[in-house]
User: Which sequence fits this backbone?
């Protein structure tokens, strides 16, 4: 099958990658669209030592492996779990100790014509959500995870650091919950989105760092974001970390101790919440898609995704 493979730090287009073989309980999905996210770029820089087909944000159509799902348009959760380990047995299967993760850890991803995943990972898409918007279900679910982990209400002062792909989704989700929200970014192009959505936003250089936010969500994708976050958060506030980067920068943790900050790591989230929000039009993602490339131009697509004039770059896995 045609696929985009991580090789020597680059996304390489391969015409005849071995087709994926479904295990017991797995379905074969024809991929319709896949999205490039910061994690994919970090994987190419060496994060997780990943090799294989890239891609974990996608939408597709089930072509084999399940009579109930055959022909249905789906999105799918990316953690493939054992169901037997202590984490799985205690209801924390997204932390399964034996897991593989689509396009991230031990499993070929979705930037290919076909992908295999356990049937139970699949969620059928309502017709109202188009193929392109559906690619956002996975990162949007990750944005919803914040609200599952940290209590946020209309009085909570929340800052979202980073107005990139993930930051903009987090901003929309938190704005929908209702809180005193400020998005802090560097890129005027992405900050414009906030303006259009009537979400308070400001350039990072214009923000007073007065240690007065109850919750700061770090979604910059850069280690520098951590330090800025610590200058914005109030004592005993909660810092939510959303970025995964390949680097291992030294961090000064003294402010965490002195201000008794609660640090919350946050990764994958609830798909049903994301699907419902998209179907109801409570989150707007179409305008975030700034370019779509065919799979064979994958390398160009990745180059584009790193440029500041682009927000979400998609791959059309069906186009020749
Ligand atoms: Zn992602
Ligand atoms: Zn397990």
Assistant:
């Amino acid at each position: 099958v045609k696929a985009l493979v991580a090789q020597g730090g680059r996304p390489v287009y391969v015409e005849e990658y071995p087709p994926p073989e479904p295990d017991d309980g797995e379905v074969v999905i024809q991929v319709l669209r896949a999205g490039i996210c910061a994690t994919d770029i970090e994987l190419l820089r060496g994060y997780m030592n990943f090799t294989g087909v890239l891609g974990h944000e996608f939408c597709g159509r089930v072509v084999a492996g399940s009579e109930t799902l055959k022909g249905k348009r789906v999105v799918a959760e990316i953690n493939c779990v054992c169901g037997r380990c202590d984490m799985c047995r205690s209801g924390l299967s997204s932390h399964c100790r034996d897991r593989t993760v689509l396009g991230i850890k031990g499993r070929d991803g979705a930037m290919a014509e076909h992908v295999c995943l356990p049937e139970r990972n699949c969620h059928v898409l309502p017709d109202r959500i188009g193929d392109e918007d559906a690619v956002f279900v996975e990162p949007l679910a990750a944005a919803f995870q914040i609200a599952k982990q940290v209590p946020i209400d209309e009085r909570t002062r929340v800052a979202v650091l980073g107005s990139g792909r993930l930051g903009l989704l987090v901003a929309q989700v938190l704005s929908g919950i209702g809180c005193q929200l400020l998005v802090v970014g560097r890129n005027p192009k992405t900050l414009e989105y906030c303006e259009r959505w009537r979400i308070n936003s400001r350039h990072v250089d214009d923000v007073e760092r007065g240690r007065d936010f109850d919750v700061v969500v770090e979604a910059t994708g850069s280690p520098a974001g951590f330090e800025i976050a610590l200058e914005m958060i109030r004592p005993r506030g909660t810092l939510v970390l959303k970025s995964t980067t390949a680097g291992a920068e030294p961090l000064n943790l003294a402010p965490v101790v002195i201000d008794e900050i609660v640090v919350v790591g946050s990764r994958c989230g609830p798909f049903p919440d994301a699907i419902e929000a998209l179907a109801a039009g409570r989150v707007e993602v179409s305008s975030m898609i700034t370019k779509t490339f065919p799979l064979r131009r994958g390398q160009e697509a990745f180059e584009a995704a790193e440029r500041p004039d682009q927000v979400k770059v998609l791959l059309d896995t069906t186009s020749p």
The pocket of zinc ion (ligand 2) is lined by residues 81-85, 87-88, 96-98 (CB under 6 Å).
